[in-house]
Every structure is written in structure tokens, then in C-alpha cells.
Design a protein that fits this description.
Strand content of chain A: 15-25%
Radius of gyration of chain A: 19 Å
Structural class of chain A: alpha/beta
Strand order of the largest sheet of chain A: 6-7-8-3-9-10
CATH superfamily of chain A: P-loop containing nucleotide triphosphate hydrolases
CATH class of one domain in chain C: Mainly Alpha
Mean pLDDT of chain A: 85
Chains: A alpha/beta, B mainly alpha, C mainly alpha
Structural class of chain C: mainly alpha
Order of helices and strands of chain A: HEEEHEEHEHHHHEHEHEEHH
Largest interface: B-C, 91 and 92 residues
Helix content of chain A: 25-40%
Distance between the termini of chain A: 21 Å
Distance between the termini of chain C: 29 Å
Low-confidence stretches of chain C: 309-316
Number of helices of chain A: 11
Shape of chain C: globular
Number of strands of chain C: 0
Largest sheet of chain C: none
Largest sheet of chain A: 6 strands, mixed
Low-confidence stretches of chain A: 1-34
Oligomer: heterotrimer
CATH superfamily of one domain in chain C: MetI-like
CATH topology of one domain in chain C: MetI-like fold
Number of helices of chain C: 15
């Protein structure tokens, strides 16, 4: 059974490489480009929490400056996979990599001597619940920037904050109340602030773990719009429960089931012509 | 800088120092705590004997003639019992009312809560002065008659007086912990009782309070520890003596006399025998301090055992 | 029955006004006779001695007691802020599980040690230590006006610090643990180190609780009578910087609370002394009123500044 899954062998990696093709699902919005290089290369990744296996034999190539969506039922391992990219799992007791590698731009992120804080700056992350810090809107964005660039001038910082807020389409709404507490913003605004906060440290990859799970449809729409804009400059990986959302915005889709990556491919292909029966069943809404 | 280079960069340093400082702080506090206990054990251990527990402190103020801790131990126990008798009904009543009947948003609730907060921060020495002011009034002669024959003022110092004031002193603490445990009783219990058509008070008495009982007991035991450890109120309101108000205090006929009389507790015994007091028998002070710390510690352990039982029940 | 419960609640909530009334009422003679000069004038010790002579009219000056109280409280609060914050961070964030529980018990143990025991140990260890190792040999020549003998402001600060520390640590740990895990994740995900996440996000977010805990600890320090009276020298003296900061710390003090237990035995039968002591108690009441309301106010203010709208009480 296991050999039918996209698994940890070199040959399956070869198959996956052929899947890295120009985005077709959003052909109308964006011109097809030539094959983009993989930004994240996952090769036979396995994860265990204590004796419990959470991920097994996951391999995929996440293309640069595209939106990749991870879908699958709850507890299928998609968030675990995501959190391996910036090593946010490190603090969890019992967590270990049971096999395989994650390469970011060719560099193994779990290799000895990797600067984890630098990794997390390169791979920004936005969480399911908006989690602005209990401080002003300005400080929410400036905090990490100040951390990374000690002695930065106020004017440079102002510029970075403004740019990040503009990128997150939040500037026009908050420009007059930057000193106000971030907790006074609405849920959707808070989530965009978290995106701005992540962008301010100039990441290469932006990961979002079900960013719209707690938002209303209008706020969700704005975030989706924003992600499409950002995908011109950033490699985006999004975990979502919302199949329609994955269909609307993603170029690549990975379908996870019970700790395995069942299928990974172009969004159109996964949704319209699944190679695996499990995928077809899931996208039809049969389970999950 | 490419992503690869970034990942290969040296990590920021400097955070190690802060973490190290926290470990040092914890080590310092642990060391201080352990050396206090260690010192008491080391200094007090060899003074502990059957005689120490069964003899009374000597009446003389001479240095080095302190005597044992029989009366102080009885005094501490008596004060704890009396203060709990005073405080318990009020504390449980107030905690029940605060958690079950009061509307959190009303100004009245706010006044009561503010009052309790302020009361909690009043130092025990001020309670002592309060007790003197209140119970020296002639109408309170029945509480402390012993020293005031024919005087226009009551003496204002006795077990009864000290216990009443001590009860008020620990009241906010006991109310707070009791209230928490009453609030922790699941709403479903109350709903269940409600569904059976039982009145609110009956459901509180039959369902809520029994369920919260271990928590309330914990609160009272911890309060007993506070009473045992207090010195200022005892010093001011029980009289700075080392003896009971009646020489044959163990006789039942003297009971009232004892309650209305002055006395000693472990804390005043320690103070009296410390190098700062008139007795100046440090060895006896260390031994009594050891007894007191063990007593308070035992109360805390019992409280946490009872508290743990509550948690298990709650889950 | 609810009526009975209500009266218990009302009694508990309002008994503090009784305390204020009886204490302040008895202080009226002193305040009427002296007004503000009660706290701006010195000479407490001699005045108490003079007051034993019935014929004399004595005016009291509690300024050195006020200074002694403020200095010892501020010192103890600063020490326990530094040590206590370290312990709280250690307990809530850094300690391995195997160390956390024992250390937590130790902190609770420290909280349970009665103040007279702190005084006894302070008198037996801290005071001699200061006398032997901190006091310079020529102290008597440098500071002729007051005996420099170990029992001092420094001893009071040392003992008070460890007395109030567990209360601060308990409140601080509670408020640090109440910080949502998502703030920590947010900081780590932005590439901040664990330590920087603690100091830049968690500690500031816990600030309302930390400040409230500190203010309550300060209230405890101002009101502590017995332990301070045992180690501080019991001389109504205002430490000054005339001989430098070290000698200031080595000067003896007498605090408001300790004066009450030191004088308030039989001397209470002399009306002028009794009234002066009630005036001291009134000052302490004023402090505890300011500090407890201050703790609540600080808690609300910090929360409001951070935009946390839920109403919350101060953990005592």
C-alpha cells in the first residue's frame, strides 16, 4: 500500500519534479511563467512525537514565488509539516525528526550549526488565531525589526513599518492610530497586522497556518487577495481546511492524510483530476 | 545575503547571560531558604527535649533562664482555635454570598471587594493597635477584665481580644481562597439541583458547599498557619508575658479566667528569648523557632493534601 | 439565611472602616497638637523617654521613622524586584520540570516562615555578618554621630527582601503563566530568541501583574514590625549620604511599624505616647490604603494601555 503514496524514495522525488510546472489554476490572473526553482525541498521527511509517528515519508518541492496549499483532514500532519520548515516544533517535548531532510534554498534546516533564529526570519509564519502582541500597532511591527537590526534609526524603522503595513493592505486603515493598542483592531485587521509583522523582517518564505479559520468571509476575502498580491514576491505556503480557498488561490496543492503526503501537484490537477482516489474523495467532501 | 548564508550565520549571543542570571537568582533564593531551615535545625535541635515541651517559661526576666514552651504551645493552639471559631462562620458566609448571590457589576459589590482588598493589605501591627483602641473601651471589660479592677478602661489584652482581632486579620485571605473554591464548583451541580426544584439556599447548602468543602478547609488551614506565625498582634493584644492569666490554667474551672487573661505564644516566646528580647536565650529561641516552622510547614502540607483531594474530585 | 450571609459579606467588606475609624480617632490628639510637623520633625527616641515624665508636655517628631520606613521599603522592593523577577522567569519559563516543583515548594516554604523567625535568623546571621565583614574598621571615627554596628538599614533591607520575595514571585509567576502561548509562538516565529521573547514580549505583557504584585509586596514591607525591629538597630535616625552610600546603608533605622511594637507595651498607659503610636498606625493605614488601591489602579492602567479590556482583580 505504502508504495502507492508519494513517499520517500528518490524516484518519487523525480516524479514530483515533473509536477513543478507553471501555475495553471490562476492562468487568467497571471501569465504562465517558466518553471520556478524550488524554494523548499522536502525529502522523505518523517516526524515523531515520542513513540507516535506524526509524519512519514513526505517529499515535495515547493516552488519559489507561488502559493502552495496544504489540505487534509484535522490531525493529518499538515501543520506539523509546515512547522518543520521554520523549526517551530523544536520546543515541543518528544519531537524528533525520524528521517529525511528539509532544504531551504538548498540548505538543510535541521543541519548542525544552523542559526534557528535566522531561519525563522527567512521563513515567516502566521498563525491560526491572530496573535498581535499586547502593545501598539507600531511596536508590533517594530519589535522584531529592532531585535534584528540593533541601533536602527527611527526614520528607517518608520519606513519599514509603513512599507510592511502597505504590503499587508493595512496602512490606510491604521495610519492615524499607529500608537493605539493592536488588540483594539478587528480580527481581520489583526491577522493582516500579523502578516505585516512577518513581512517586516523580510522573509523569503511566508507560511500561514489556517490564517482565516477565525475570520468572517469578508476578512477572509481580503486576506486571500493579499496573498495573491504577495505571491509575486514571496514563496507562500498555506495550510487550510477550506477547499474553496485552496482552489481560489493556490498554484500547488499537497493533500495530507494520516501523516502521509498522498498527493502533491498543480492545484487544477489535484482538484479536477486527482491521481489518487483518497484525494478525489476528500475534495468531493466525502470525509474530513 | 542569500538564504543559505543567513542560515549559516552565527547566532546572536548575549541571551545566555540573562538566563544564567535567572538561574543564579533561583539558586540564591533556594540557598537562603535552605540555610534558614538548616540554621534553625542546627542551632535548635539539641535544645529540643521532653523537658523543653513540658516545662513552662520562667517568669523571671533574667537572661538565660527561659524555660520550656509548654504554655506558649498551648497559647498558640488556643489562639488558633479561638480565632478560627471567630473567623470561620464569617469567612464562609461572606465567601458564599460573594460567589453565589452578588452581582459583580453593582457598586455595592465593588465597595465590599475594595474593602476586602484594603483590609488584606493592613499590617498586623495596625490590627493590634485597632484591637487596643476598640477593646479598651469600658463596655468590653468582659473580654479582658484581668488587669482593670476599678479602672475606667478595660485592659484590652486577652486571648479573646487577640483571637477576635486575629480572626479579622486573616479574614480577607480565607474569604478569597474559599470564594475561589466555591466558584470552582461546576455550574452543572447547581443546575442539577435547580432542575430538581430545590431552592437556591438549599442547593448551596446541600450541593455547592459540600463540593467546595475541601477548598474551604484548605483556606482555613492556611489561615491557621498565618495565625500561628503572627507576632505583632500577639505582642500587643495578648500581653508581653510568658505566662497564662491563671497559674493552674489547665483546670476547667479556670477556663474563663484563661480566656480573659493574657498569655504567650510561640512567636512571643521566640521574640522574648531572642537576643533582641529581655530573655536573651538564643538557643531556646532557635528551638522554639524550629517548632514553629515545623508547625506552619505541617499546616501547609496538610492544606496542600486537602487541596489536592479537591482537585481530584473536581476533575 | 441569605440575609445572614449578606451580613457576613457586609461585615467583611466594611470592617476596614472600623479599623480606620478607631485607629484614626485615637490619633486625633497628636495630629491636632502637631499637625504636619509630626512627620517633618525628628527626635522620636528622646521624646518617648521624656513622655514618661508626667509633668512634661511632649511633641513628637516621626520624620526619621518615616524616612526609615521609606528607605527600607524601597530597598527591599528593589532587591526583590531583581531577584524575584529572575525567580519568576526561572519558574515559569526556564526551569526543567525536575527542578521546578522542588523550587516552587521552597518559595512556598519561604512564604510560610513567620516574621519573628526571619528576625531571629537576621539577628543571628545577617547582623553579625554585616558587622564583621561589611562595616569598615574605622567606622566609629568616620561616623561619630551614630553607632555603626551591623544592625542597620542594610540588614533591614536584606531581611525584608526575602520576606516579601515569595509574595511577589507567586503573583509574578501567575501573571507570566497567564500570558497566552500564542504571544511566545509569535515572537519565536519572528526569529527572536527564547530569552528575547521572554524579556521583550512575555515580561511586558505580564507587567500589570508584576507591578501589582510588587506594590502588594511593598505594602507588606512597610507594615513589617517585628523582624525589622530585631535587625534594624531601633534608633530613630534618618540615614544620610554625608559619608557616602555605603555608610548610609550601614546606619541604624527605626521604622514606623517597628516603633509601635517596641514602644507599644506598657507605655500605652501614657496617653500622649498612646496617641502618638495611634498616629503612627494611622500613617501605616494610609500607606496600605494607597498601596492596595495603587496596586489595583496600576493593574487596570497597564491593562488599559495594552488594550486589554476585560476587568480583572489583583491577585493577592
Amino acid at each position: 500500500m505504502s508504495d502507492t503514496f508519494a513517499s520517500d524514495s528518490a524516484e518519487s522525488l523525480g516524479i514530483l519534479e515533473t509536477l513543478v510546472r507553471p501555475a495553471v489554476s490562476r492562468a487568467g490572473e497571471r501569465e504562465a511563467e517558466s518553471t520556478s526553482a524550488p524554494m523548499v525541498t522536502v525529502n522523505g521527511l518523517g516526524v515523531a512525537y515520542g513513540s507516535k509517528t506524526a509524519l512519514e515519508g513526505v517529499s515535495m518541492l515547493i516552488p519559489e514565488r507561488r502559493i502552495t496549499a496544504f489540505i487534509g483532514p484535522s490531525g493529518c500532519g499538515k501543520s506539523t509539516a509546515l512547522r518543520c520548515f521554520n523549526r517551530m516544533n523544536d520546543g515541543i517535548s518528544g519531537f524528533r525528526i525520524s528521517g529525511g531532510t528539509v532544504l531551504l534554498d538548498g540548505q538543510d534546516v535541521y543541519a548542525r550549526g544552523v542559526n534557528v533564529t535566522a531561519l525563522r526570519r527567512a521563513v515567516g509564519m502566521v498563525f491560526q488565531q491572530p496573535n498581535p502582541f499586547p502593545m501598539s500597532i507600531y511596536d508590533n511591527i517594530a519589535l522584531a525589526v529592532r531585535e534584528h537590526e540593533r541601533g536602527i534609526s527611527r526614520s528607517t524603522l518608520d519606513g519599514i513599518v509603513e512599507q510592511a503595513l502597505r504590503q499587508a493592505n493595512l496602512w490606510d486603515e491604521v495610519r492615524d492610530c499607529l500608537t493605539q493598542s493592536a488588540l483594539s483592531l478587528s480580527g481581520g485587521q489583526q491577522q493582516r497586522l500579523c502578516i505585516a509583522r512577518a513581512l517586516a523582517v523580510r522573509p523569503t518564505v511566508l507560511m500561514l497556518d489556517e490564517p482565516c479559520a477565525s475570520l468572517d468571509p469578508i476578512s477572509t476575502g481580503r486576506i486571500e487577495e493579499l496573498l495573491l498580491e504577495l505571491s509575486a514576491d514571496y514563496t507562500i505556503v498555506i495550510v487550510t481546511h477550506n477547499l474553496a480557498q485552496a482552489q481560489r488561490i493556490s498554484d500547488k496543492v499537497g493533500f495530507f492524510l494520516m501523516g502521509r503526503l498522498v498527493e502533491f501537484g498543480d492545484a487544477l490537477q489535484v482538484f479536477e483530476a486527482s491521481a489518487r482516489p483518497e484525494t478525489a474523495e476528500y475534495v468531493r467532501g466525502a470525509f474530513g | 545575503m542569500s538564504v543559505q548564508e543567513k542560515l549559516r550565520s552565527k547566532p546572536q549571543w548575549g541571551s545566555g547571560f540573562g538566563q544564567f542570571a535567572c538561574w543564579v537568582a533561583a539558586a540564591v533564593v533556594s540557598a537562603v531558604c535552605l540555610s534558614i531551615i538548616g540554621y534553625l535545625v542546627f542551632q535548635g535541635w539539641h535544645s529540643l527535649s521532653w523537658k523543653f515541651f513540658t516545662t513552662d517559661p520562667s517568669e523571671s526576666m533574667r537572661e538565660g533562664a527561659g524555660g520550656g514552651v509548654r504554655v506558649p504551645i498551648v497559647g498558640t493552639a488556643l489562639l488558633i482555635v479561638l480565632a478560627v471559631l471567630v473567623m470561620f462562620p464569617i469567612a464562609v458566609g461572606a465567601a458564599t454570598y460573594l460567589s453565589e448571590y452578588m452581582d459583580e457589576s453593582s457598586w455595592f459589590t465593588r465597595v465590599v471587594r475594595t474593602g476586602l482588598e484594603v483590609l488584606a493589605s493592613v499590617p498586623s501591627v495596625v490590627f493590634g493597635m485597632f484591637g487596643l483602641a476598640l477593646f479598651s473601651m469600658p463596655i468590653f471589660t468582659f473580654l479582658s477584665s484581668s488587669g482593670a479592677e476599678g479602672a475606667s478602661q478595660a485592659f484590652g489584652r486577652s486571648f479573646l481580644v487577640a483571637a477576635i482581632v486575629m480572626g479579622v486579620h486573616v479574614l480577607p485571605f480565607v474569604i478569597k481562597v474559599s470564594e475561589e473554591s466555591i466558584r470552582a464548583v461546576p455550574v452543572s451541580y447547581r443546575r442539577g439541583a435547580h432542575a430538581l426544584g430545590i431552592t437556591k439556599w438549599r442547593s448551596i447548602r446541600k450541593v455547592v458547599l459540600p463540593a467546595a468543602a475541601p477548598g474551604i478547609v484548605t483556606a482555613v488551614i492556611l489561615g491557621m498557619g498565618l495565625i500561628a506565625g503572627d507576632t505583632a498582634i500577639v505582642w500587643l493584644l495578648l500581653g508581653g508575658t510568658t505566662t497564662m492569666g491563671a497559674s493552674n490554667w489547665w483546670a476547667p474551672s479556670q477556663f474563663l479566667q484563661v480566656l480573659r487573661g493574657t498569655g504567650a505564644t510561640l512567636t512571643t516566646y521566640i521574640f522574648f528569648n531572642s537576643p533582641a528580647g529581655d530573655g536573651n536565650s538564643p538557643q531556646l529561641a532557635y528551638a522554639a523557632a524550629l517548632v514553629l516552622v515545623v508547625l506552619v510547614l505541617a499546616l501547609n502540607v496538610i492544606a496542600s493534601i486537602v487541596g489536592r483531594r479537591r482537585k481530584r474530585q473536581g476533575s | 439565611m441569605p440575609l445572614l450571609l449578606a451580613s457576613a459579606a457586609i461585615f467583611s467588606g466594611l470592617v476596614v472602616t472600623l479599623v480606620v475609624f478607631f485607629v484614626a480617632y485615637n490619633a486625633v490628639p497628636t495630629f491636632r497638637a502637631e499637625g504636619l510637623s509630626f512627620i517633618t520633625r525628628g527626635g522620636w527616641d528622646t521624646q518617648i523617654n521624656n513622655a514618661f515624665t508626667p509633668s512634661k508636655t511632649v511633641f513628637f517628631g516621626a520624620e526619621p521613622l518615616l524616612i526609615g520606613t521609606l528607605l527600607s521599603t524601597v530597598g527591599a522592593v528593589l532587591v526583590s524586584l531583581v531577584l524575584g523577577t529572575g525567580c519568576a522567569i526561572f519558574l515559569s519559563e526556564l526551569a526543567p520540570a525536575a527542578i521546578r516543583r522542588p523550587f516552587e515548594s521552597l518559595v512556598q516554604l519561604l512564604a510560610g516562615i513567620p516574621s519573628v523567625v526571619f528576625g531571629l535568623v537576621g539577628l543571628s546571621i545577617v547582623v553579625p555578618f554585616i558587622q564583621n565583614y561589611v562595616v569598615p574598621a574605622n567606622a566609629a571615627n568616620v561616623v561619630p554621630e551614630i553607632p555603626i554596628e551591623g544592625a542597620s538599614l542594610l540588614a533591614a533591607i536584606t531581611v525584608l527582601s526575602f520576606m516579601i520575595l515569595p509574595f511577589f514571585v507567586t503573583v509574578a509567576v501567575d501573571s507570566l503563566r497567564a500570558i497566552p502561548r500564542s504571544y511566545v509562538d509569535g515572537g519565536l516565529a519572528l526569529g527572536m530568541t527564547k530569552w528575547r521573547t521572554i524579556t521583550r514580549i512575555q515580561v511586558p505583557a505580564a507587567a500589570p501583574g508584576l507591578v501589582a504584585g510588587l506594590v502588594l509586596a511593598a505594602a507588606r514591607a512597610t507594615g513589617e514590625a517585628i523582624a525589622v525591629s530585631m535587625v534594624a538597630g531601633a534608633i530613630a535616625f534618618s540615614p544620610n549620604l554625608n559619608h557616602g552610600p555605603l555608610y548610609m546603608l550601614l546606619m541604624p533605622i527605626r521604622t514606623i511599624a517597628s516603633s509601635i511594637v517596641e514602644t507599644g507595651g506598657d507605655a500605652m498607659s501614657i496617653p500622649s505616647i498612646a496617641s502618638a503610636l495611634f498616629a503612627l498606625a494611622t500613617l501605616l493605614l494610609l500607606f496600605s490604603l494607597i498601596l492596595s488601591l495603587g496596586a489595583r489602579w496600576a493593574f487596570a492602567w497597564f491593562n488599559k494601555r495594552m488594550g486589554v479590556r476585560q476587568a480583572g482583580g489583583v491577585q493577592t
